[in-house]
Amino acid sequence: MSGRGDEEASRLDQLKKTAAATVSEIGSLTVNDKGEVWFAELSEMWPGQAFTIKVKEVLFHEKSKYQDVLVFSSYEYGNVLVLDGVIQCTDRDEYSYQEMITHLPLCSLESPAKKVLVIGGGDGGVLREITRHETIETIEICELDEMVPEVAKKYFPKMAVGFDDERVKCHFMDGFKFLKEVDAGTYDAIIVDSSDPVGPAASLFQKPFFDLVHRALKDTGIVCTQAESVWLHLDIIQELHKLCLEVFRDPAKNSGSVNYAYCTIPTYPSGQIGFMLSSKSNIDFRSPKQKLSENSSALLKYYSPEIHGASFVLPQFAKKCLDC
Ligand code: SPD
């Protein structure tokens, strides 16, 4: 090979060296023969599979006190936030999850929400959605890792916009500690926007946490928590469902409601993620009772009253599993 062929080979070689230098410290990035850098989402939570995205540029990579924080720009999904190797959100599809985890509970309430708490949610996307509800007077967020909002404000300004709302108050601390200190019956809704139940978020899927949530909610309040994928995590969903029934159902009063809903989202494992909604009251989560204003509704890209109801309709295999 000579001339053009040699030039091309040396260009590729150079590209690979540059890319390799970028990826050497980040385990989830690899460089292929063409010098392209790819992110692969590997986790024990979805063994034997990995979603991959072609990386344009690594924008931020640091270890916080709690986790590995990575932001890169991509060719097809805009900027991507990754915590401990797992995708948390991308510019292109974040609205699907953030709209559904927020408007499912807030629109299921019998009366409009006034006081709402977010546990986790440091990227600000859920805050942005909550602020679309004009009746809400106070929005508190309890996020463990201060680095996440900092990074979100810089690299995801459209998502982190919720932090600017004057009703928002931030607490940077452990969700458990925070909930232990709040008065009983404080919140109309609690949204648990957690990462997966490995690492810092593991305790947010366990009974002691839900006991505290139960205490912090008003009698008519609703908690909505990230509840994983029917394709990958039926065991986790089943456990969580059982746990929420144990905490929120009161057979003596014949009260309490627990239901699983889901949305589609290409950059979460298997393209689907769910939400567990629970309340001490008898609430038909499937039928929305609250409406967003026309102005707010016009800004939504995924949620609608129709999709609200439809999101509780499960495929047979998942339905059977949660019925038993
Ligand atoms: N498998 C990833 C689940 C991440 C859920 N939380 C995302 C945070 C977005 N606000």
UniProtKB/TrEMBL annotation:
The yes or no answer to whether the keyword tRNA processing is present is no
Reactions this protein catalyses: S-adenosyl 3-(methylsulfanyl)propylamine + putrescine = S-methyl-5'-thioadenosine + spermidine + H(+)
Catalytic site positions: D193
Q: Which UniProt keywords apply?
A: Alkaloid metabolism, Polyamine biosynthesis, Transferase
Q: What is its EC number?
A: 2.5.1.16
* Residue ranges occupied by any PABS domain in the UniProt entry: 36-280
* SUPFAM superfamilies recorded: S-adenosyl-L-methionine-dependent methyltransferases (SSF53335)
| Transferase recorded as keyword | yes
- What is the top EC class of this enzyme, as a single word? transferase
The family database entries (InterPro entries) matched by this protein are listed as:
PABS (IPR030374), PABS_CS (IPR030373), SAM-dependent_MTases_sf (IPR029063), Spermi_synthase (IPR001045), Spermidine_synt_N (IPR035246), Spermidine_synt_N_sf (IPR037163)
The similarity comment for this entry is: Belongs to the spermidine/spermine synthase family.
Q: Output the NCBIfam families linked to this UniProt entry.
A: PRK00811.1, speE
What name has this protein been given in UniProt?
A: spermidine synthase
Native source organism of the sequence: Chloropicon primus
